Each structure stands twice: as structure tokens, then as C-alpha cells.
Amino acid sequence: MHISHRKGPLPRYYQLKEIMREKINAQEWKSGDLIPSERELSEQYGISRMTARQAITELVNEGLFYREQGKGTFVSRHKITQQLIHLTGFTEDISARGQRPATRVLSAQMCPADETTAEHLRIKTGQMIFTLRRLRLANDEPLALEVSHLNFIGCEKLLEEDLEHNSLYQLLENTYGLTLIEAEQELEAGLISNKEADLLQMPIGSPALYTCRTAYTERNLPIEYARSIYCGHKYIFYTSLKREQ
Ligand code: 16G
């Protein structure tokens, strides 16, 4: 494939983007591969380095490539498509894909609810609740940071559970007899801060999806209010929409 230098409707950076996209689709460039440098691309296609840079930057912004400082630009992994239709937990989702879910518990403690959490859990600010901070991984790759706030009678017993090797939702349902029925969830775009970058093994400023979930039991009681940060270039959130009749 080559770049057309005739004056036409397609700018050169755009043509290079399409060429590189095609290489990914054809599996010529695979996940994790280092792509050629700006200089190499500009020499190979007879274009300026600025044009090559623009094409690369746009594909980084679209999530097809990611940059690692001092190392170069790489092809991103296939994204995980996370449905937003059924109420499921991380372990369930990752296992259903044939991957190995894992958890690193960063902290687990009883602490007073802040105002926002209290509002979502319909309790008083300052009430003691169970707060769990976890790094979630699939096949050893960090995918998300989750902070779950839980409120139910006896929630302090969670302090004694092995939360590193157990799914929270399975524990709630099987050990604590709490049936999760529904949840509300919000998604917001953001950037990964330096605090989170290390844990998620992502450069500071990488795209992220911030989510808030309130999960309810059968009696319509909110028992979990969770705030999570998902690596933006690893996820696609999917939902299906029906037109109102
Ligand atoms: C999901 C939930 C999280 C919940 C976890 C339970 C979102 C945004 N978050 O990751 O709130 O605590 O599943 O997973 O979907 P587990 O059963 O594997 O512990």
C-alpha cells in the first residue's frame, strides 16, 4: 500500500491512518507489537514526520495504539466488551470470557460514610460501613480499580473474609443471603492520575472510564455503592437500546 500524493479529497495523515488500521485488521501488526517510528514511517511512505505523527496520535487517541515513554508506540490489546444490560460482577464477567480473574485487596476496613456514599446508601453521613479497595486483574493484567462501600446488618463480618480469593457478589449471595436484584450505574470519561497510574500500570493521563454503581437487594435496599476506574483503552461498554413504542 502506498500514499497518494495527488491532490485529492483524502489528506495524507488520513491515508496513513487507514494503512495502519488495515495492518492491524490483517493481523500483520498484533497486540503488543512495537510500531515503526515516525521517522521510519515518513521514510517508508515519503511523507513528513509531522504527518506521520498526526496519524499515530489520532490512532493513540482512538485507542488502537498506546505510547510508552522512552519505548515507543505499541498496538493495543483487543478491548473487553462489557455489557451494561445484566447486573454481573467482575469475576463472573472475566470468567465468562475464559480469562482468569484475580484481585489484589488494597485495603478493607470499616470507616465512616462520606456524604455522597451516605446519600447513595440512604444512610447518615458518618455511619460506619465496610469499605473495600481492590485492584482487579484478568490474566494478570490490571484492568480496574474498584472502591466498594457496603452497608448491611453484619457487614463488618466481611473483615474476616478472604476477599483476595473470593468474589464479593458470590459471598454476598451465598454466605450472607443477600440477593442482588438491580443496580444503577453512571459512566464518565476521565484521565488516569499519578496515584492510579502505578497500580493500573498505565502512563499518567491515559484515558479512563469512571463508573459509579449502586446495587440493590430484593427489598430495594442499596447495599453497595462502588466507584471504579477502568482503563479506557481496554474496555468497550455495550448496551442495547429499544425505541419506545
Ligand atoms: C463489578 C462492579 C463492582 C462489584 C464487582 C463485584 C462495576 C462498575 N463494578 O466490578 O461494583 O463490586 O463487580 O465483583 O461494574 P466480584 O464479585 O468479582 O467481587
Poorly predicted regions:
none
Shape: elongated
The largest beta-sheet arranges its strands as 4-5-6-9-8-7
So how many helices? 7
Radius of gyration: 22 Å
Q: Which structural class best describes the helix and strand composition?
A: alpha+beta
The total of beta strands comes to 10
CATH architecture name of the largest domain:
3-Layer(aba) Sandwich
CATH class group of the largest domain? Alpha Beta
CATH superfamily of the largest domain: Chorismate lyase-like
Mean pLDDT: 92
Q: Report helical residue fraction.
A: 25-40%
How far the N terminus sits from the C terminus, by CA atoms, comes to 48 Å
Oligomer: single chain
What small ligands are held by the chains?
2-acetamido-2-deoxy-6-O-phosphono-alpha-D-glucopyranose
Assess the beta-strand content as a share of residues. Answer: 25-35%
- Tally the structural domains: 2
Question: What string, H for helix and E for strand, traces the elements in order?
Answer: HHHEEEHEHEEHEHEEE
Main sheet overview: 6 strands, antiparallel
CATH fold-level label of the largest domain:
Chorismate lyase
Description:
The protein is of the alpha+beta class and 245 residues long. The chain has two domains: 12-75, Winged helix-like DNA-binding domain superfamily/Winged helix DNA-binding domain (Arc Repressor Mutant, subunit A, Orthogonal Bundle); 80-238, Chorismate lyase-like (Chorismate lyase). Helix content is 26%, strand content 33%. The protein is built from seven helices and ten strands. The protein has helices spanning 12-25, 38-45, 49-61, 90-96, 115-121, 168-174, 194-200, and strands at residues 65-68, 72-75, 80-83, 101-112, 128-138, 141-150, 180-191, 207-217, 222-231, 235-238. A six-stranded antiparallel beta sheet has the order 4-5-6-9-8-7. A two-stranded antiparallel ribbon has the order 1-2. It has a two-stranded parallel sheet with strand order 3-10. A hairpin with a 2-residue loop joins strand 5 (128-138) and strand 6. The longest helix is centred in the first third of the chain and has 14 residues, at 12-25. It is elongated, with a radius of gyration of 22 Å. The mean pLDDT is 92. It binds 2-acetamido-2-deoxy-6-O-phosphono-alpha-D-glucopyranose. The site of 2-acetamido-2-deoxy-6-O-phosphono-alpha-D-glucopyranose has 14 residues, from helix 4, strand 6, helix 6, strand 8 and strand 9.
